[in-house]
Design a protein that fits this description.
This protein has 161 residues and is mainly α. The chain has one domain: dinb family like domain (Four Helix Bundle (Hemerythrin (Met), subunit A), Up-down Bundle), CATH 1.20.120.450. It has helices spanning 7-27, 44-68, 83-86, 94-114, 117-120, 134-160; strands at 74-75, 123-126, 130-133. The chain has a three-stranded mixed sheet with strand order 1-2-3. A hairpin with a 3-residue loop joins β2 (123-126) and β3. α2 (44-68) runs parallel beside α4. It is globular.
């Protein structure tokens, strides 16, 4: 049987993953944030920009649809690889993007917090993951942040040497 994650737990995970990311970034040498560890790899700045995009264009979009759609929402898989060029990650200020991410994460948490239990458990269909709920989306958002936090740590190690 799948583990049931409560709204309170997921709100705390969304907060703590954001706090951990912020702490890691503020403790690191920001001069390294624009350096890529390889030709086809992202810099720390690119990762922060990606996190803003996914917060807005994937997680909040899906949560909002879960809260407002009358019919069962259907979510296609998203090819976000093109965003680096379309949204010009290379020209972004990482600190401003971090502030934007923190602001948007607060909105994500508010969406999760404000959902009734029935809406929190409401089902939708995802092209890759099959049947999902708001809880799945919130959990994925927090885990996604932690995956990229680990990527940032690896990147800083690689470019710092």
């Amino acid at each position: 049987m799948a583990e049931v994650l409560t709204q309170e737990y997921l709100e705390a995970e969304l907060r703590s993953s954001m706090e951990d990311l912020r702490s890691e970034l503020l403790a690191a040498d920001a001069a390294l944030f624009v350096q890529k560890p390889g030709v086809d790899k992202w810099s720390v700045r690119d990762v922060v920009c990606h996190l803003v995009d996914t917060e807005l264009l994937i997680f909040q979009y899906r949560l909002n649809r879960m809260l407002t759609d009358v019919e069962t929402p259907h979510f296609p898989d998203i090819d976000h690889a093109r965003w680096e060029l379309e949204h010009i990650y290379a020209g972004q200020d990482w600190a401003k993007k971090l502030q934007e991410l923190e602001s948007e994460r607060s909105k994500t948490i508010a969406m999760v917090h404000g959902a009734t239990q029935a809406l929190f458990e409401r089902e939708a269909h995802h092209e890759v993951h099959g049947t999902i709920t708001m809880g799945f989306i919130a959990d994925y958002c927090a885990r996604h942040t932690r995956v990229h936090l680990n990527q940032i740590r690896r990147t800083l190690t690689e470019v710092g040497n």
